[in-house]
């Protein structure tokens, strides 16, 4: 049985700069492509003699550098905006909470260019908001507010049906919307 990843590897032996290959783990989605109109992971999507591949193309709605190579600059900028690491608040000698000096406050949507974070970044933000070790839950939630961020999602569930990893960002988005709305 062939995997699309191997199939593309054979093509790459004859053509250069067609596709970026990073690994074969099926975890991060960096090898996601569109095959016959369906988003899949090239590293774990099998093909056999009965399956006819009519069209392999890059993922829709993401700028293309060349062939199947996507420009993920915007994604990485937005991902960096959510500060995807644990941040803790420290207490001074009087017991007053102080913020770590090297940490910036999370940007609000008004401060970001092209404010919509997208389902993947919001799902990752949800992960940090739920982490009990993190001390910036309310700041993280504040960073998701505004008409062009979390609430720009209209609940069409396209992110869930098109996620090649089978994740459910729509559920996380709904939970975040509910939590933010309850807080006022």
From TrEMBL:
Gene3D superfamilies assigned: 3.10.20.30, Alpha-helical ferredoxin (1.10.1060.10)
Q: Name one GO biological process term.
A: aerobic respiration
The protein's matches in InterPro entries, at most eight in alphabetical order, are given as: 2Fe-2S_ferredoxin-like_sf, Beta-grasp_dom_sf, Helical_ferredxn, SDH/FRD_Iron-Sulfur, Succ_DH/fum_Rdtase_N
Stretches assigned to the Succinate dehydogenase/fumarate reductase N-terminal domain: 26-76
Record-linked Pfam families: Fer2_3
Q: Which GO terms describe its molecular function?
A: electron transfer activity; iron-sulfur cluster binding; succinate dehydrogenase (quinone) activity
Domain of life here? Answer: Eukaryota
Q: What's its catalytic activity?
A: a quinone + succinate = fumarate + a quinol
Q: What is this protein called?
A: Succinate dehydrogenase [ubiquinone] iron-sulfur subunit, mitochondrial
